[in-house]
Design brief:
The longest helix has 21 residues. It is globular and about 85 Å long. The chain is α/β, with parallel strands linked by helices. It is built from 19 helices and 24 strands. It folds into three domains: 214 residues, no CATH class; 190 residues, Rossmann fold; 200 residues.
């Protein structure tokens, strides 16, 4: 989808006669059924007027121009794409990313800090951002990789209000590799930008390259698929065993034999924590990509998705996505849709950022089943932790049947987490009252290291000792404290307070500028800098560590004669507090997930003594001390 396509002459004329912003606004409403914001219209009016002058100065004639070109299955749009011929008379395109920034300061890695949406925020350096757009097009738009003469592609950024100072952060040495590939031009470097465009696009081609781009149906290139497959294949932790391999082979068979049939295939793979659901899912992504199939790995977890993208690299955004990315997907657009943590599928893809005029009543499960030819659902009904999550195995079966899909159902039994101790997971289920199991008592002689500690300080010390030994480890807690925004200097507030113990939560998902020693919320579980913060269910779910330290808060307590009791006054999770009679069950699921995150050991501190005594009474040789 694009909001504007035409010749360079048409674009210049529309700009000169002040028609361009109106045309874009009209096209925006036709595409999204809502009006663009005033700030976006002003941005079009101001930025595109400068681009029009540039094209006139460069003498562009018979070139093709695309404005607000939407990258498929994303909410991202290219500001400007111009096409023509290079010096060898080969078709060529150039992306121009437009910014109205006036200043920025250095941040870590690929980011800078600038004033956006009313506050200072960490954002991608313009060269990095436009470079990602260029890679996305090169990987996913056939015009740039198919045929004997694919269209060439370059990219740059134009900050037309930016007047750099001596030693400006925008051109700091840490960004040099990105600037070399995708240069940035500022308000005082019009000649440099004009030279870049003239060198890239020597002459027009009567929009022939533009038409190739518009006619191309987006799909991943074999080069990209090879990349994803190779990265994931090289990770030893993704080895399959026993029934994991059975489920994997079923999906591979459906993927390779089902495309000649009109009927869809839906495969449900059920399993509790540590049974290897994500291992199978990632093996499938690697193998299917290596085989040249358009496979997407999708979850409802921001943290897990962002971490996986970090592992595979920014190019993985094409294939590693979210459940709500398929609202506009074509029927059968994706060969294989791998839905990990399907219990987190929501009723609809609407969220708090969805404009009222753009909200849809279509079920999210129906969007997924429509978009994929083969759809794989990895699910654990007892990991639902929010009232809006409806992706149970029963719901999936009902929806798949409604779509006429061939249905296969598998269950994983073997435990690969908790030192292979199925007994520990079963004991947690029994003790929390999630499910009756044979494991009523915890055997201290088990290989899995479970300990109850007397203070949060002891808990943190134990976790840091394991880190010092080379293990992965994190501290997590129930959502029993407020979650503050970062301070103006990017440091975090010590919200988790228990006596003299004071630690911050991991960064909020909507945090602005963060200090260099603090990772984004989505990378807390993966980035070593996350060790100093306390994670919650939304950053820990889906991950595993060697050791986990868990603070059980007073939101869920055990009372003799009553059983498990929810105390809403101690919960700070406003969504879960509004869950009515599901409150206790959701909290049980929360703590079940947190307690089962570890491979080698789980250490726990109980804020409520009666609850601690109940757990101790479920351990061999333990004597309860009821007060």
């Amino acid at each position: 989808m694009r909001l504007y396509a035409g010749s360079s002459e048409e674009f210049i004329a529309d700009s000169v006669h002040n028609r361009i912003a109106h045309k874009l606004s009209t096209a925006y409403f036709a595409s999204y059924r809502r009006e663009p914001s005033r700030s976006e219209v002003n941005s079009w009016r101001n930025s595109l007027a400068t681009v029009s002058l540039l094209f006139q100065h460069a003498g562009f004639k018979r070139h093709g121009v695309l404005l607000e070109y939407e990258l498929p299955l994303t909410s991202k749009r290219l500001d400007c794409l111009v096409t023509g011929l290079d010096s060898q008379r080969q078709q060529q395109a150039a992306i121009i990313e437009l910014k109205q920034w006036e200043k920025c300061v250095e941040s870590d890695a690929e980011r800078v800090v600038t004033f956006v949406a009313g506050t200072n925020r960490d954002v991608l350096h313009p060269s990095v951002q436009v470079g990602q757009y260029m890679s996305y097009l090169a990987d996913y738009q056939p015009a740039f990789y198919e045929g004997p003469t694919p269209i060439g592609l370059r990219a740059c950024a134009y900050l037309h209000n930016y007047l750099p100072r001596e030693g400006d952060a925008l051109f700091a040495s840490q960004y040099a590799p990105y600037l070399e590939e995708c240069p940035v031009f500022t308000a005082d470097d019009v000649l440099g930008l004009t030279g870049f465009l003239r060198e890239t696009l020597v002459e027009g081609d009567d929009q022939q390259a533009l038409r190739r781009i518009l006619d191309g149906k987006f799909r991943p290139s074999k080069k990209l698929l090879d990349h994803v497959g190779a990265v994931l294949d090289g990770r030893q932790e993704y080895v399959l065993l026993d029934e994991q391999l059975v489920a994997y082979e079923r999906v591979m068979a459906a993927a390779h034999t089902g495309f000649g049939q009109r009927q869809k295939s839906a495969i449900i793979v059920r399993g509790g924590p540590g049974t290897g659901k994500s291992v199978i899912a990632l093996n499938l992504l690697a193998a299917l990509s290596r085989d040249g199939l358009n496979a997407h790995y999708v979850t409802g977890s921001r943290a897990f998705t962002q971490t996986l993208r970090q592992i595979v690299g920014p190019r993985a955004k094409v294939q590693i996505k979210y459940f709500n990315n398929y609202t506009q997907a074509d029927f059968n657009e994706v060969d294989v849709l791998i839905c990990d943590e399907s219990h987190r599928i929501r009723e609809t893809s609407n969220n708090r950022f969805t404009n009222a005029a753009n909200k849809s009543g279509r079920l999210q499960i129906d969007e997924l089943l429509s978009a994929g030819k083969v759809i794989v659902f990895f699910v654990d009904d007892r990991q639902v932790v929010r009232p809006g999550e409806i992706g149970s195995a029963a719901t999936i079966k009902q929806a798949a049947t409604g779509h006429g899909a061939t249905l296969h159902d598998y269950k994983l039994e073997a435990q690969f987490r908790c030192a292979g101790s199925t007994g520990f997971v079963n004991w947690i289920d029994n003790t929390l009252g999630v499910e009756r199991t044979a494991n009523v008592l915890w055997n201290k002689n088990e290989a899995f290291d479970f300990r109850i500690l007397d203070s949060p300080e002891e808990l943190e010390t134990a976790i840091r000792e394991k880190l010092a030994e080379g293990n992965t480890a994190r501290l997590a807690a129930g959502f029993c404290w407020e979650w503050s925004d970062p301070r103006p200097d990017g440091t975090l507030v010590d919200d988790v307070v228990i006596g003299d113990f004071r630690r911050p939560w991991n960064a909020r998902s909507d945090a602005g500028h963060l200090s260099r020693d603090i990772p984004k919320e989505s990378l807390w579980a993966y980035d070593p800098r996350g060790v100093g913060q306390v994670g919650c269910i939304y950053t820990a779910q889906g991950f595993e560590f060697d050791y986990i330290g868990v603070i059980l808060g007073p939101d869920l307590v055990y009372r003799p004669g009553q059983g498990w009791v929810g105390q809403k006054e101690h919960s700070r999770d406003t969504v879960v507090k509004r869950s009515g009679d599901r409150f206790v069950d959701l909290l049980k699921n929360v703590y079940r997930v947190l307690l089962s995150r570890a491979m080698k050991g789980c250490y726990v501190y109980f804020m409520d003594k009666e609850t601690e005594n109940f757990f101790r009474s479920r351990m061999e040789d333990a004597i309860p001390e009821w007060e």
